[in-house]
Amino acid sequence: MPNFHSVDTKELSLSLVDDLTQLCNRRFIYNDMPKIIAQDETFAKNTSLFMIDVDNFKKINDTFGHLVGDKILMELAGIMKKSVAENGIVARYAVDEFLILLPGQEEDRAQRIGDAILQDVSQFKWSTKDKSFTGQGLSMGIAAYPDDGASMTDLINCADQALYAAKKSGKNKIFHYKSVSAEIKNRTILRQMLLRPPLVNRKEELENLRQSYEKILERAKKQRILMEGEHGIGKTRILEEFAGWTEKQNIFFLFCKLEQKEESGPLAALAELLRVIANSLDADKFGNVLAKLMPPELAEILYLYPAAKNFIKNAPLKTEPKRRAVNLFSGLCKILVDVIGEKTLVLAVDDLHRANQITLQFFSVLLGISDVTKSLFIGAYSKENISEILKDFLAKDIFTTIRLKSLVKDDVAQIVGSIFPDIKPESKLIENMFKISKGKPLLLCEILKALVENGHIQYENERWKLKDIDVKDIPDSLPNAIKPVIGNLDDETREMLSTAAVMGGKIEFDMIENFGGYDEGYLMELLDRALNAGLIKSPDLNYDSLSFRTESARKALADMVPLQKADLIHQKLAELIRQHYKDELPTQLDRLIHHLDLAKDKDSALKYKNLSQKLN
Asked: Are 584 and 613 contacting, i.e. CB atoms less than 8 angstroms apart?
């Protein structure tokens, strides 16, 4: 692993380098940078982080074109890299946003580096055919470790708030997080709380999960938990809270959210598990784990997860046709056993009711192997959607079931009070929120978000206040709660999200990039806007695991696309799947057939259905 102060993009995988500026990209920031700085002692001392925005860049692009804009970005990247030198790292965060991390640099030293960048950029000259320009400005927000944030994510959030304040107060300046107004900070906190609301009346369920872990330590036995509840009741939120608790324990935590079978293919869940494992390790360690596999096992792993080729020197050429499932399961189990070591495995599976037969078969194999003596399996599912194959899976083992009930009216009042401590709603208003949400935290938070978007909840004089709200102003369903959020999106983000929504529940960065012909940085910015609006989510803060936050959000966006255009999207996506997965097409057949059916391409759909039956 490279030392943090000497990261050379020429030595990095192409997937971690920005095509235009040759700086580290967003994937590197969230996937690899935390692993590097965790081993760098200087990061434990005072460290500063800049978030930087190129002032008026959209106007430059719109006036002079993208070629001029791209050239300016490349020049600015060079200026920043030269100013930072060996003191830290410069990365491209979005279209016209950059990130600079300065380990061991206190804010006053970082301020001087920032001032030098502003000075050099102000003197930078760029030209068009007819005219030359100088005086380009940058808005810069700075946050300090550990005072402002104790993690990479916290630092970025704080610096981003400072950047927003810099732009709001006139641009072309540096703004420190310590000087950010209470309104900006409170709006950021509000957005985070609406996405991850406080847990209310769930102490018993969390305690049951913790006790299951304690039983493993006491008896060295495996524990099996089912979490049963309706959609929106809070199953995912409890898993998130438990995952946070496990960080302080000797636990290897694996979280897997299952997608609809026809949209993702039969092996998608296993591929997602591999992706999560790969992201939890540094490149060298993951490569060493893969190197221990037998060639037929490694061939199946590479077939399932092609990105693993970046971690090994020589890839086996052939699989064993009659032992494919055996080799795949064996390879996956060996990887997990190696990675877990002496830790306890916690495998949390969300939306278990969506599991297909091969996924459940693997879970059975994994939970039964003797090498994993300490494991906790948690499966969250909706009882109304349970399938026969899941019933068979559950009948083969002993599970303890945790049944989630809807919240009561007092719980709703407590959540509202936790998110908006300044507001004291009338009992009648809480009663109506309770009736409409049916005690489901997901719908309650979407209702609150809609009231903020519609201006019925506003921030004034350093307080949140209710404004002229009536029962009729409360959205009566999840789709109606989402409408004002979608309505407040800019046209570009709404167009991108609508297309992604037609494609399916999982948002594949590469597919959307190729489909829309987007610049990587611009697509990142659009996705950031959607993340900030709470319409999509990413459990590990990168672009490899994006999905719509709710099926209602996806459907509302997809319904905005005319049927004829939707047919064309499905047809084009089917072609992209054929091109993108040409070497792994059998793993994508269900998904390919799904989109060909929706595109009404009967002949092609029949062709691949016949191929699927032959392979099976």
From this structure: no
Residue with tokens 């494919």: 324
What stretches of 379-426 show up as alpha helix (H) in DSSP? Answer: 388-395, 409-419
**Residue pair 537/531 in contact by the 8 Å Cβ criterion:** yes
Q: Is residue 78 classed as helix, strand or coil in its secondary structure?
A: helix
pLDDT of residue 34 exceeding 80: no
Share of the chain above pLDDT 90, in %: 44
- The CA distance from 9 to 595, in Å, is 38
* Angle, CA of 77, 78 and 82, to the nearest 5°: 120
| Span 339-376, pLDDT tens digits | 988 889 999 999 999 998 889 999 998 888 877 778 89
Q: What are phi and psi of 176, to 5 degrees?
A: -90, 145
- Quick one: which of 504, 494, 514 has its CA closest to 570? 504
Closest by CA to 347, choosing from 445, 249, 256, 235, is 256
223: helix, coil or strand?
strand
**Residue 498: helix, strand or coil by DSSP?**
helix
Q: State the Cα–Cα distance between residues 401 and 378, nearest whole angstrom.
A: 10
pLDDT in tens, 35-55: 666 666 666 677 899 999 999
- The secondary structure of residue 65, as a DSSP letter, is -
User: pTM value?
Assistant: 0.81
Instruction: Give the β-pairing of 536-537 and 546-548.
Output: antiparallel
Look at 349 and 425; give whichever has higher pLDDT: 349
Nearest-CA neighbor of 95 among 531, 530, 527, 520? 520
Q: Is 301 in contact with 308 (CB distance < 8 Å)?
A: yes
Beta bridge partners of 47: 145
Are 570 and 596 spatial neighbours (Cβ–Cβ below 8 Å)?
yes
How confident is the model at residue 2, as a pLDDT?
45
For 343-384, give the DSSP string: SEEEEEEESGGG--HHHHHHHHHHHH-TT--SEEEEEEE-GG
Provide the mean pLDDT of the chain. 87
Most confident of 57-61, 221-225, 466-470, 600-604: 600-604
47-54 sheet: strands from edge to edge: 89-92, 97-102, 47-54, 138-145, 174-176
pLDDT of amino acid 248: 84
Cα end-to-end distance, the chain, whole Å: 42
Which residues neighbour 415 within 8 Å (Cβ) at sequence distance 6 or greater? 197, 198, 200, 407, 441, 444, 445
CA distance 470 to 489: 25
Residue count of the chain: 616
The encoded tokens of residue 326 equal 């055996």
